[in-house]
Write a structure and sequence with these properties.
It contains nine helices and ten strands. Helix content is about 50%, strand content about 20%. The protein is α+β, with helices and mostly antiparallel strands and about 400 residues long. The strands form four sheets. A four-stranded antiparallel sheet has the order 5-4-6-7. A two-stranded antiparallel ribbon has the order 1-2. A two-stranded antiparallel ribbon has the order 3-10.
Length: about 400
C-alpha cells in the first residue's frame, strides 16, 4: 500500500463516518415526523445537490464535516404554519434526545462493527511462544554485528528459528510474556529451556546477559518471537469488540479531560521546534499522515496494515462520538442539555399546576456558543499548523 492510498483510504473512511453520523439524525428525525430540509456533506459553496421528497441532498466544497438541517431547531426560527407541528422544538423531550444522540450512537455502532471485523476477519497480531529469529549478537552500536559485539547467548546455546518453547526451569509456558519475564528477571543466572524442534524434545541451557536499560539491569538472550495472527469466532469477536469499544470510550473521556494540559506542549512543538509527544494532541491531518506512513512502511504484513488502519478508524469514531456528547453548544451534547432543561422546566410547571413553558430559546446562549466555536477553531488551526510544520512521526 502506498502513502497516497493510505491517506485517501483514511479520508474516505472519515467522510463515510460523517455521513453515517448525519444519517443517524436524519432517520430518527424522519421517524418522529420532523421535517428535514437539507442533508449535506461538507460546508461552503454547493457543488452538487438533488431533491428527494422534501429534502435536498448534496455535497459542498469544503469536506470538513456535514450537517442535517431539521426544521425548528430554535423557537425563534421562521416556520410555515403547516410545518409548525413538525418542528424539532415542539417534539417531546425524549424524542429530541434520541434525534440528537443518534449521531454519536452510530459512531459507537460503527466502531463496534469495525472492531468485530478486525478481531474476526483480519485477526489480532500476537507474539507466539515459537522463536521467530535468533540474533547472532547483542549489538552495542547501530548497524550490523561487528567483532566487538558479544555473541547472543541464545545463538551460542543453539536456539533456532522455529523452536517451540514449552517450559523454562520446569515451569510450563503458555505466552511469550512469560518467556520475556523469565529472561529479563534473571541476568547472569542459567535457565533451562524445554523446546520442541521437528517433533523432538530438547533441553537448552542459556544464561541471560546483563543489559542496562533506563537505569535498570535486565537479562537478554537475543531471541525474537514469531508473530501469529489470531482470528476470533464471530461471537468471541463481538465480545472482544464490545470490550474494546468500552476501553476506547473510557480512554476518550480521559483524553478530553487531559486535553487542556496538553495544549502548552503542542504550542511548544509547533513554534519552538520541540519534539512532538507521541501521546499528545494530533489533528486529522496528522492522523491521515500516520495512516499513509503505516500503509507504505516496509514492516508488517498487509493484514497487519489493514488491522492498524481499522483500529485508527474505530478509535476516531469513538472519540468523535464522545466529543459530540460534551454538553456545550453547538455540539449535540449542548442541544441535549437544553432538551433536558426543557424537560425539567415542564415537570416543574406540572407539579405547580402551571401551563407548560415555551421551549428554551438556544439563541440566548449565542455568546457561549460563539466562544466554544472560537476555541475549537483556534485549536483546529493550531493542530493543522503543528501537523504541517512539525508532523508526528510514526517511529517516534
Amino acid at each position: 500500500m502506498s502513502t497516497t492510498l493510505g491517506i485517501l483510504a483514511f479520508v474516505v473512511a472519515m467522510l463515510l463516518s460523517i455521513m453515517i453520523h448525519e444519517w443517524g439524525h436524519f432517520i430518527t428525525a424522519r421517524k418522529y415526523g420532523m421535517k428535514v430540509t437539507e442533508f449535506f456533506l461538507g460546508f461552503g459553496p454547493r457543488l452538487w445537490s438533488t431533491v428527494r421528497g422534501e429534502t435536498e441532498f448534496g455535497i459542498k466544497a469544503i469536506p470538513a464535516g456535514g450537517y442535517c438541517r431539521i426544521t425548528g431547531m430554535t423557537p425563534g426560527e421562521p416556520i410555515a404554519e403547516n410545518d409548525r407541528g413538525r418542528a424539532f422544538y415542539t417534539a417531546r423531550v425524549g424524542r429530541r434526545l434520541v434525534v440528537l444522540g443518534a449521531g454519536s450512537f452510530l459512531h459507537f455502532v460503527l466502531a463496534l462493527l469495525i472492531l468485530t471485523l478486525f478481531f474476526s476477519a483480519v485477526g489480532l497480531p500476537q507474539e507466539s511462544t515459537r522463536v521467530g529469529e535468533v540474533l547472532s549478537c547483542i549489538k552495542t552500536t547501530s548497524g550490523n554485528c561487528t567483532s566487538s559485539d558479544p555473541a547472543a547467548p541464545a545463538f551460542t546455546a543453539g536456539f533456532r528459528a522455529g523452536d517451540q518453547i514449552e517450559s523454562i526451569n520446569g515451569r510450563k509456558i503458555s505466552t511469550w510474556k512469560e518467556v520475556g519475564e523469565a529472561i529479563r528477571s534473571t541476568p547472569d543466572k542459567a535457565l533451562t529451556f524445554s523446546i520442541a524442534r521437528n517433533g523432538e524434545s530438547l533441553e537448552l541451557s542459556v544464561t541471560p546477559k546483563p543489559y542496562l536499560t533506563e537505569g535498570k539491569t535486565i537479562g537478554i538472550i537475543g531471541v525474537i518471537s514469531e508473530r501469529v495472527t489470531t482470528r476470533y469466532p464471530i461471537g468471541s469477536g463481538v465480545v472482544a469488540a464490545i470490550r474494546e469499544v468500552g476501553a476506547l470510550i473510557s480512554g476518550s473521556v480521559k483524553a478530553l479531560i487531559a486535553l487542556p494540559s496538553k495544549i502548552p506542549a503542542l504550542f511548544g512543538a509547533t513554534f519552538s521546534g520541540e519534539k512532538r509527544d507521541p501521546n499528545g494532541l494530533v489533528g486529522v491531518v496528522g492522523v491521515a499522515r500516520v495512516s499513509g506512513e503505516a500503509a507504505s512502511s516496509d514492516g508488517g504484513s498487509l493484514s497487519e496494515k489493514i488491522g492498524f488502519f481499522l483500529l485508527i478508524i474505530a478509535s476516531l469514531n469513538v472519540f468523535v462520538g464522545v466529543f459530540n456528547l460534551i454538553p456545550l453548544l453547538p455540539l449535540d451534547g449542548g442541544h441535549m442539555a437544553v432538551a433536558l432543561f426543557d424537560g425539567y422546566r415542564s415537570r416543574r410547571a406540572r407539579r405547580r399546576g402551571l401551563p407548560a413553558p415555551a421551549p428554551f430559546d438556544v439563541t440566548k446562549l449565542m455568546p457561549i456558543t460563539l466562544a466554544v466555536i472560537s476555541v475549537l477553531a483556534a485549536l483546529s488551526l493550531l493542530l493543522l499548523f503543528a501537523d504541517i510544520v512539525n508532523p508526528l512521526q510514526l517511529n517516534q
